[in-house]
Amino acid sequence: MSGWYNAPIAAWEILAITDKALSIDPNLAEAHAARGVALANSGQRAEAAAAFERALELDPNSFDANLSFARFCVTDGELERAVQLYTKALEIQPEDSQPPLLMQTVLRTLGRIEEAEKYARLGVKRAEETLRLYPESARPAQGAACALAALGEKEAAIAMMERGLAIDPDDNNARYNAACTYALLGEIDRAMDVMEVWASNAGREQLNWFKHDSDLDPIRHHPRYQALLKVAG
After folding, report:
1. Is the dihedral of CA 53, 63, 139, 126 positive or negative?
2. Which of the four, 20, 144, 164, 171, has the lowest number of CB atoms within 10 Å?
3. What is the pLDDT of residues 144-183, one digit of tens each?
4. What average pLDDT does the segment 35-56 reach?
5. CATH number of the domain that 99 lies in?
């Protein structure tokens, strides 16, 4: 499941905006968190980690800081820290589907299968509730599709994936999550077809996520995946 997104504005623009905000008030936790995301997308990982740590120092109960730092920790291989941060984000906003849906993948990677299934089902439930309230929102459907595929619920996973694609067919994150869904369901060639389209439109940190996401483990040794890995660097 994708944890990183194509930003609507460039990383340098976000950095300029956050610099201005922090020049006015250096204690804005959300600005430090946004800066961390922008720095990560610019390849400045040490600086990004420091920005996330500062955001949490200023406000340990910031949902955005905990969720964004958790995503960053996944790409840094700090999976236990990622679980802690996702857990905190879920405590802060228990109705949000993102923390449990993202955390279930990390838990599976760690071999904590029972916990992973628990959070996968919680995340699907939260995603369904969100979709009832906001049927035009593609993101909950995308994440739920991956979780349902991980749970082995093929028909439900495909239906949810198709719903996400129908809402926003041009969303590159929808393509990524469709590829993850196909991979988890064992439909390797279909996963690679979608993944190749996604990779041609992916940003730096998205490509970094692609290298660490265990949802893609079923396609890791495929020659087409290896070719994409060389492009990702």
Report:
1. positive
2. 20
3. 999 999 999 999 999 999 999 999 888 999 999 999 999 9
4. 93
5. 1.25.40.10
